[in-house]
Amino acid sequence: MNHLVVCGLNYHSSPIAIRERFIIPTSCLKHALHALARMPHIKEAAVVSTCNRTEVYALVSDVQAGLQEIESFFLSTQAVADHGALRPNFKLLREDVVLHLFRVASGLDSMVLGEGQIMAQVKDAHQAALEAGTAGPFLDQLFKTALNCGKRVRTETSMGRRAVSISSAAVELGRELLGPLAEKNIVVVGAGKMGKVLLKHLLSEGGNGPVVVLNRSVEKLGSLANGDLPNAHRIKTSFTMDDLPQLAANADVVFVSTSAPQFLLNGKDLLAQKSKSNLCVIDISVPRNVNPDIAEIEGVRSFHADDLVAIVNKNMAEREALVAEAEEIVFDSLEGFNGWQRSLLVVPTITELRQKIESIRLAQMAKSQSTGTESDDMRDKMEDISRNIINQILHHPTVQLKATTDYGVLRQQAEALRLLFNLTVSEPMASGHHYATQSSGSSCPFSDSGKQIDEALKDFSDRLKKAWLSFK
């Protein structure tokens, strides 16, 4: 039997100095997924790697061995090879994994409650696992349901209308430190998704203060002024990354948001310039792109992603009301996913049972017809009667299986049917639940419900035998 697990770390359990060591760049994600798939106990795998978390979702044949393999995967990555003492410190099993991913996709587990980017990041993780061939039917359904849950939270609650992002929180922090930014001299490093969101919030104030945008890819800079950003006349793109130290030294605030794996701004580079007396640097990149040593320079205040907690925790009463509203959708989605899991047992078992009984019926009908003693009318009546007998006797077990919500009881019922009728239905892909195994001292592997099914099926067999004998 396979089990669902998640293993990794996130902002709840690890500061940015550790999280950044575990980041898996997009360019490396396919190789990382293939490395996970080669582990003997990992059957399916997907990786969600963002500034706030790096989490491996996996379907494993053995929980302990699977978690150990995921740990060894983390420790073998180049980013953490020199930090052997570091370990992923976040682990969940079975249904807790499902709930966690649903809350992540809904923005309920984000540093900034309801932030909008996480949906796209979960979608990218799902797509990457599908393209790498490491997401099988189970993880595919799990991520599809999670994305649908996130979409419902944003469209059916006020969460979407109140959603913010790390980028907008960074701009809010800048305003708290410096006041209105409309006339400030601003430098933005990075023109990716987060950088564009940041620019949109910065430029919404209007004003005429210059906003210098730097990016490693010049092509992205060309589209900024012609895009849908407000007050685009403030944007200046005629500089290169080499100009960053000088531009930063003369700025009021520098926002940094790139996916570069190294520091782009260092204290020694800034010291070489004639810096203003009051510079604010806000780095929301993970891994960090600003060397912490710049905070040692007089007049420079430096902040990173984890420093946004104060912004995030404002108006908690209002936020908690939003969470309660969204959690109802999360648990509704959980029930839907559990229903899908139950169908992995119910549908194949019912189908196989009906096929088995139908094959017996057809075989007996063929024997009856081979005697040649029945008329066409009699054969038609036998056909109708035999079908009605099967439908009526299978009706109760079918309804009971479909109505059972306890996965443990359902599994026992399905196992009883497979055993009694020698069915060849394969084991379900995974379970989101944990059950205690039957003790060795027990005389029966089935619960009371299993015994009821046993008795019902014996009665079914007896009635079927008597019905066929009546035609002879």
Please state roughly what percent of the residues sit in beta strands, choosing from under 5%, 5-15%, 15-25%, 25-35%, 35-45% or over 45%.
5-15%
User: According to CATH, what is the class of the largest domain?
Assistant: Alpha Beta
Q: Radius of gyration in whole Å, from Cα? A: 31 Å
- CATH fold field value of the largest domain: Beta Polymerase, domain 2
Question: Can you list the strand order of the major beta sheet?
Answer: 7-6-5-8-9-10
Explained architecture:
By secondary structure, this protein is of the alpha/beta class. Helices cover 52% and strands 11% of the residues. Helix 10 (218-222) links the parallel strand 6 and strand 7 (235-236). Helix 4 (95-105) packs across helix 14 (316-370), helix 6 crosses helix 14 (316-370) and helix 16 (407-420) packs parallel to helix 17. Residues 80-85, 431-458 and 467-472 have low confidence and may be disordered.
Characteristic key phrases:
disordered C terminus; 17 helices; Beta Polymerase, domain 2; 6-stranded parallel sheet; 472 residues; elongated; Rossmann fold; 4-stranded antiparallel sheet; alpha/beta
Give a brief outline of the structure.
The chain is α/β, with parallel strands linked by helices and 472 residues long.
Helix and strand topology:
Elements: E1 3-10, H1 16-19, H2 26-37, E2 42-49, E3 53-60, H3 63-76, E4 90-93, H4 95-105, H5 117-132, H6 137-156, H7 159-162, H8 166-178, E5 186-189, H9 193-203, E6 211-214, H10 218-222, E7 235-236, H11 244-249, E8 253-256, H12 267-271, E9 279-283, E10 300-304, H13 309-312, H14 316-370, H15 376-403, H16 407-420, H17 448-470
Parallel strand pairs: 5-6, 5-8, 6-7, 8-9, 9-10
Antiparallel strand pairs: 1-3, 1-4, 2-3
Helix pairs in contact: 2-5, 4-6, 4-14, 5-6, 6-14, 8-9, 14-15, 14-16, 15-17, 16-17
